[in-house]
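pinging the channel bc i need a second pair of eyes. not urgent but kinda urgent?? the chain im working w is below, pasted from the shared doc
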Amino acid sequence: MKSSLRHYGLCKILVLIVAAVITSGCFFSCSKKVSVSSLTSTLDEIDRYINQGQVESALKLLDKTDNKSLSSNFRLGICRRYLRLGETKKAEGVVKSAIKNDPENLQLTAVYTSILLKKDDLKEAMKTGKKLSGTEYGSLYAEALLKSKVKSGFAKVTYDDFCSEDYSGIYLDAYAGSKDNRWLRNNAIVSLTSGKINQAFVISPREYQSAQDAYFWALVKYDDRKFVDAAEDFKAALDLAEREMTDDFDLKKNLKKKQNLSLKARALLADCYVNLAEEKLAEKERSAILEYLTARDDEENSAEISDSEYSIPGVDILSVIYHNSAVWAQSRDDAKGAYKLLLFEVSKWPDYVPGLITYGNYAYNSSLLSLDDPMTQELRKLGIRSMDMKAYDDIPKIPVEDAIARMDDSLNRFKNYQLYVAKLDLEDKTQNITDKAYLAKIYTTLEKNTLGTNLYPPEIVRYAVHGFLSLDRKEEAEELFNRYISTRYKFNPEEPFYDEFFHHIHELQNWEIENAAWFVTEAKRASLAKQLYDFIVFVEYVKDSKTVREVSPRASASAKMNLAMIYSSTGNKNEALSLYGKAASDSQDLRSKSEALYRIGVLYNDMDKVEDAIKSLKYAIYLNPSHSKARLLLSKIRN
């Protein structure tokens, strides 16, 4: 009986314990619900106090509500309300306490880092905020790091410090927090400084926020030879600058700044068009610049704003504009226009090398013009001028001696191998020297300009190779070229020359690849020559997930025609026709255009397309009446 009672009592206790546990669970469950509900109500009440300006009541209730056992979200809410009331110290205490309980919570870390930044405690902000780097709150760490650098004193901070690759992520974090494109530009500069142009290009924004923004990204794309994209961005920069000039019409300093940017953008846009073989569009942009410069009044010419940032573009840009316009005038047979522009250029910019070279070429070409036959001389004695004589007399002439003297003057001031070689070429064409003397001059030039064993400035090698070939000394030309290439690019002497050539091909200059292609063509190594010319002539890029292959606008006419010749000799006549046609349409030189058309005529004749052959040959003769081969073939076809 006692045993049964004892058993009953034990069971009763167990039931009570179980009941207590179940009740306790219900209590705690209900208590939790009540706690969340009551906390939300309490925070709403605190908000009402804050909105009604009852600061003291709000603070009392906040102090009473805060508890270390609360969840991170509730403690964040309490912290933010302390901050609204200006109680930074209390807010800091709450968030620090919450971080101890939940150290991986990025929101808590972000709020604490923000408080430290407001306190200007940069050292602690950097330490705490480091884990935010690369997250949605990364801009806080970026701010701490950048402020710390600046505060350390500009004497200790250099440009290179901010261009370190360590800052790449910092700038991206800053952009993520601010959406200000200037941070993307900073990040791009880090990539550009380390030579990673493609990497800089990848992060360009979808929309530009200012003319300066568009201009910067246009420069990045221009340097990456993406001329189509660069042209679009330069146009965007011009449009944005126009709007900004309208908005800032009363701010003279900003107006000058935008005008300067517009001129530079237009000049580089013209250069993009040149690289894309769009000469008419290029000249349109250059004409707009020259028209603007001509129309400027005395007030605009004054030096009221002397800061170079706001001044008209410097020598480097304007000299290019005048030079390219002069070249355009020459291609249009506008001798007067070309003469006027070139004379102004060499007078204004006496050390601009392309201008001096073009001036020398004009001088040489004008020296070739001759109208002094006996009949003309007799007519002149009688004071009579025919139409041909009048046209001849109206062409401005430049003495070759003047061009050489200007080159010498510049070379005395600055050493420039390109100009030095141009002067040598001009002398070679105008001075009547024997082949023996010319050969001696080539070797003397090499000896005077050596940089080491088998190493010379590239311009000197080009001059010497061309000279050897003109004297029909092909072996000497190829030997010099191969030794120079092997030394300059550090070829492995144990490997075949052209294996190493292809290994380094992305480092080589176009003229070096083209020379090599010519040598292997002469050696009848058609397959190798085609590979080399293909590399020069064609470019490949990805567009809409597809690989596009097209003729490079930078490929020379000779490279295009030589590759077309290889296509023709290997039976690919349609490819040859296409390439000859591209060479003819792109060439600004009438003789080159005429030669390409002659070769098209030859191919059409071989393909029994007689009418097409006749049209091409007639056009070739029209462009160059002295093209004897075209005349001969045309005569044979007609007979």
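so The chain has 34 helices and two strands. and The longest strand covers residues 538-543. — does that match what u expected or am i reading it wrong
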